[in-house]
Amino acid sequence: MKAQGICAKQFEAVKQAFEDMFDDPQERGAGLCVQVGAEIVVDLWAGMADQAGTKPWTRDTLANTFCVIKPYVAVAVLMLVEAGKLELDAPVARYWPEFARSGKAKVTLRQVMNHTAGLPALRGPGHNPMMYDWEHMLRLLEAEPLWWAPGTDLGYGTTTFGWILGELIRRVDGRDPCVFIHEEILDPHELDVHLGVNEEHFHRIARFDSATGRVGDPYSQALRTVVKNEPSHIATLAFTNPGMVPRRTSDPRWWAYRQPAVCGHGSAHGLAGFYSALMAGNFIGPELLTEYSREHSHGMDRVWMRPMRYGLGCMLEQQRDPTASHAMGPNTFGHIGLGGPISFADPEKQVSFGFVTTTSGSHSMIDPRPRRLSSLVYAAL
After folding, report:
1. Which CATH architecture has domain 4-72+183-380?
2. Mean pLDDT throughout 62-80?
3. Residue-level pLDDT at 21
4. What are the residues whose beta carbons fall under 8 Å from the beta carbon of 193, sequence distance 6 or more?
5. Average pLDDT, the chain
6. Checking DSSP bridges between strand 209-210 and strand 359-360, what pairing results, if any?
7. HEC-encoded secondary structure of 162-210
8. Taking CA 41 as the corner, what is the angle to CA 36 and CA 47, rounded to the nearest 5 degrees?
9. Do residues 374 and 353 make contact, with C-beta atoms less than 8 angstroms apart?
10. Model pTM greater than 0.90?
11. What does the DSSP assignment read for 229-266?
12. DSSP E strands, the chain
């Protein structure tokens, strides 16, 4: 299938690989954008945006990105750190006193951001019916006891990350966290990423679905087995209580949902543009950017059930694990989303990479499709 868009001659192999993806009849639609510095060198799209195959994908098609947006709320928090309104090593309860309940008084902002806080999941009963009620979810978090002493273990805060950081933004700034992100990060730089899509843009949203026959790497397979068979496991609760699943993405409530860690919609050029603007110093200064993207935690993550490395709200390069590697430089940082979307940056090469898809794979870290593309980008530099 021929792709639409632009591609610098140097990156022709990237374009060919992107087009080759569509040799698989399950591949419906996708977008890819690569920037080097401020220059867009690859901006491609192909396929269809709907499941019936009647609506062509365009440059401005919005794809569900799930957790790709976690760095956005992290950077928003760091902007408030730089402004003196938050401190990384202060207890969350300094700004949100009710959070101290159930033994959480010593949990720090830094621990939340590097996934060592001890609050990666909510125990039962099922919270899916109330997941769209921000205040209700805050009351649950306030009452929830820790899974371990803060700073002593590693566990990805799938949904808790967004409620905690989002509420801190609201407490010290006064704005809804997604409004803050739009007004301070996205809108000034015309980044086509939406944390809560306005109804006027609903028609741009592509339909998301799973592919069959894609089993994922061994870590991903093991995680899926646990989620299917062990309802009280910490990983199961982190991903399902409430659940962030492909079938939810056809619900207009999800499109409009403002949860700044798990629900974003964007174009490939919007995702890549975020990291270009970040590396250019538009949101936080160089010292805090270095702090954001250096290693703050590593080890066997109890939620992902695999070795992980984190900065302050971003995932770091895993060169020893080919199924999690960005296939670029050793200091690459960014974030994946469920089923294939990903965006990240290589600060040494000043490269920003954004990939969106509506065909969900089964790898819990970087999907083989964008990993193949990113390896070809790196080879071309």
Report:
1. 3-Layer(aba) Sandwich (3.40)
2. 97
3. 97
4. 65, 69, 72, 186, 264, 265, 266, 267, 270, 271, 274
5. 96
6. parallel
7. HHHHHHHHHHHHCCCHHHHHHHHHHHHHCCCEECCCCHHHHHHECCCEE
8. 130
9. yes
10. yes
11. H-TTSHHHHHHHTTB--GGGGG-HHHHT---TTT--EE
12. 4-7, 29-36, 39-47, 63-64, 193-194, 209-210, 265-266, 297-301, 306-310, 315-316, 333-336, 342-346, 351-357, 359-360
Letter for the amino acid at 96? W
Instruction: Write out the two tokens for 268.
Output: 């490939």
| Cα–Cα dist 246/208, whole Å | 6
| Cα–Cα distance, 288 to 184 (Å, whole number) | 17
> What number of other Cβ atoms are within 10 A of residue 328's Cβ?
24
- Judge whether residue 124 has pLDDT over 90: no
The answer to whether the beta carbons of residues 308 and 322 sit under 8 Å apart is no
For 41: left if phi > 0, alpha if psi spans -120 to 50, otherwise beta; the answer is alpha
Tokens representing 55 are 């609506």
- The upper half-sphere exposure of residue 137, i.e. CA atoms within 13 Å in the direction of its Cβ, equals 22
Using CB atoms within 10 Å of the CB of residue 262, give its burial: 0 to 12 exposed, 13 to 18 middle, 19+ buried.
buried
Q: Which residue has the tokens 């401190």?
A: 87
Dig out the tokens for 306 from the structure. Answer: 């695999």
Lowest mean pLDDT among 107-111, 319-323, 364-368: 319-323
Tokens at 214, concatenated: 């894609």
Task: Quote the pLDDT of residue 326.
Answer: 95
What pLDDT, on the 0 to 100 scale, is given for residue 248?
A: 82
- Amino acid, single-letter form, for residue 340: G
Residues in contact with 13: Cβ distance below 8 Å, sequence separation at least 6, in sequence order: 376, 379, 380
Query: What is the pLDDT averaged over residues 123-131?
Result: 93
3-state secondary structure of 111: helix
Supply 35's token pair.
């920037």
Total count of residues recorded for the chain:
381
CB-based burial label for 165 (10 Å; 0-12, 13-18, 19+)? buried
How much is the average pLDDT of 224-228?
96
What's the token pair of residue 246? 């492909």
